[in-house]
Structure prediction request, 448 residues.
Amino acid sequence: MPSHNLPTHSPSPRQPRRRLRVRASLPPAVLAGLLVAGSGAAVLWAPILWAQVSGERGIAPVASTTDIEVMGIAVNTTGDTPEEARRAGWQEAQRLAWKRINGPDLPDSQLDGLVSAIIVESEQLGPRRYIAQLGVVFDRARAGGLLGGGGERSRSAPMLTMPVMVSGGVQTMFEIRNPWQRAWAEYQTGASAVDYVRPTGAGWESLMLTAGQTGRRSRSWWNEVLDQFGAADVVMPVAELRWLWPGGPVEGRFTARYGPEARVLGSFTLRAENEEQLEPMLTRAVRQFDTLYTAALAAGTLRPDPTLALEDVELSPMVLALLEASRQAEAAEAERRAQLAQAAAPAPVITLPPLDPSTPPPAQAPEPTQEASYSIRVPTPDAAAFDAALGSVRGAPGVRSAAVGSAAIGGTSVLRVTYAGDLAALAEALRARGWQVSEGAGGLTLSR
Prediction:
């Protein structure tokens, strides 16, 4: 057995490494509180926001790998010394884990070369006996060929992971550090078919990602959130923990939700007999959540919500191929219907007037109006007003695009509009849609 698998002391837990996705800039939704009209309001909000993001919060997820993890291997071995008992237990765990993933028969010497790590979930070491719950990690590059899984694997679209913990009637996510967030941060997601996007929960993320966010239904707001993390949709693993008495058994009810509507995929219950067993119970719950989400992905249930924007999201080749095939099928169906309608309609008879030499030539088409970018300030007292304002501006004649410069729910939001015309024409177009418009230097201010 390799020496790195046989320390003379109990291995320490794996230290979490820095997450793969990093977003350094503060998102517009967090800056919204500072963009309230009037400098006095901005000064008032600044210390409040700073207090909310300061302090110890956030747990960095471990770096994801594609190695094969097999957890929950129970061993009970003996030996002349504690070290020999542990060595026998680890060898037995390797054999049991390899058998669990349907590996071919191999001698222990060859099996040692496939193992990259042993994870100790719990262990009891006596003078001649070793009882433990272990996990075995096989290197995919070396073991994948023997298992028939060495090729490229397809994965889901990126899913923003928002673990919600309910304890004592209080819902928390990243507001404070909690064991449910830690269980997801320490879970190795590289071998899963679901592409979990796990935030750290530090800094501005604790303001944007709260338990209340899971109850929002505004697609515009969800698009802003998902854009910050490069995700296409969201999964919400909910853990409801109930202590029967202080320090006593803990009952956990776990519900797998997904999408902006928080639809339920399934639920299950687990029980920890005391505080020491709470962390292993949450670790088992995370693995069971992954099983639920993976099964939903295979059944076609866990897929990006079509009402959410998918721009700038990296999808797997299989998902992209399915989307492209769907678009081509819709285009072919539309073309077939147009051909049937054209064949059924009678051919029109066109009579041209006689050519009059005195008739002046037709006027040339006017040159296309040059597009320009303008800033529009609009009051948004709530999420519904924000959606209505954004839709109204985008629907104005001549508007080529409308993007969110800053979103301030309860204040004044700023939109960046590309318009085919000058500022005065844009103002008239918005007045025609029922807005009261005030013109300023390079921008407009709307009101009802």
Summary: The radius of gyration is 30 Å.
